[in-house]
Amino acid sequence: MLMLVDCSNCRAQLQLPPGAKSIRCALCLAVTRIAQPRDVVAPPPPPAYSSSTSNNNYYHHYQPPQQQQAPISYVPPGQPASVNGQKRAVICGISYTGSRNQLKGCVNDANCMKYMLINNFKFPESSIIMLTEEEKDPLRRPTKHNIRMAMYWLVQGCQPGDSLVFHFSGHGSQQRNYNGDEIDGYDETICPLDFETQGMIIDDEINATIVNPLPRGVKLHSIIDACHSGTVLDLPYLCRMDRTGKYVWEDHRPKSGVWKGTNGGEVISFSGCDDDQTSADTSALSKVTSTGAMTYSFIQAIEHGHAKTYGDMLTAMRSTIRKTDGGLGGGGTVTSLLSMLLTGGSLGSGLRQEPQLTANESFDVYKKVFSI
Q1: Which CA distances in Å does 20 have to 15, 36, 83, 137, 242?
Q2: Of the candidates 266, 276, 318, 275, which has an alpha carbon nearest to the alpha carbon of residue 294?
Q3: Fewest CB atoms within 10 A around its CB: which of 156, 188, 205, 259?
Q4: CA-CA distances (angstroms) from residue 254 to 73, 181, 337?
Q5: 227, 239, 252, 306: which is the annotated catalytic residue?
Q6: For the residues 18-28, what does the mean pLDDT come to?
Q7: Is 167 known to be catalytic?
Q8: pTM to 2 decimals?
Q9: Is the pLDDT of residue 305 over 80?
Q10: Which of 158, 167, 171, 228 is catalytic?
Q11: How confident is the model at residue 106 (pLDDT cuts 50, 70, 90)?
Q12: H or E stretch including 318?
């Protein structure tokens, strides 16, 4: 029978083979040494995870952290994070190889994002978890369970000054919302590699895992290159910008009063398109290989010096996509086919994707300096 132990560093639950005296965590790579059974005192389970036994085998059940109830006028304390602490990132690229939903550019997106974080923003390679189908380790494949564990690891033990990044390139969709906390009546989702059997990860869970617990002084950037991803982190504010660069912040706080912000930290998310749009997987941008249009435009804005402020960043990303020959509409892309299959939408809608910016607090997008 497999024994469950907590990683001595990140507290993730690990399955210890019979007779083993130590185990290396696949997430943080720390080695946990196991005491003799008579000396073991069972530690309390880490938040949001529990285990049960079935047929003499352990099966992990994930329970999203409880949402903090607060009045709708609640504003978390604290100042924006100063990036002088540790850097940590989770990067997911899913191509769904061999399935009817196959994409071409998502693993390229993941590799390019890793390269940029290391070379442009000095992220240590050891602090980046890559979840792609190219990974040999089964715990590094982008399954629903592994993505959940990686999100939990990303925010576990973070301290003031830390800079975190969550990047996802793959399929996204929507499903009917029944608790009344979505303006359009739909929850946004990301699709793990095994979503057809294990289900999708909805925005409520993403928010509860990497947004809601974020402490004061910690900054999280999210880059989501997927269909219907405008509000996929369920953040309270969406920057509605027109083509002239004028903008207003839309208030997306649910009427129920459930707090969708942080515990004092700062979260800013760039997403591939609005909630009712699709994102393209295309070779029209790089001319060399397939990429996600949003990831490509995000990296290009940084490398070409167009990322001085968050407003400059968003404008540059949209301009790159808008100027692409032939456009990047949803019709005809593999991504939009998945959208049709999962949500009942129709192909050929001709929607052009427009990258979106959401945040836990509103700010002047042309004055706030972009930094990771």
Answers
A1: 10, 10, 40, 19, 59
A2: 318
A3: 156
A4: 11, 5, 30
A5: 227
A6: 70
A7: no
A8: 0.72
A9: yes
A10: 171
A11: very high
A12: helix 310-322
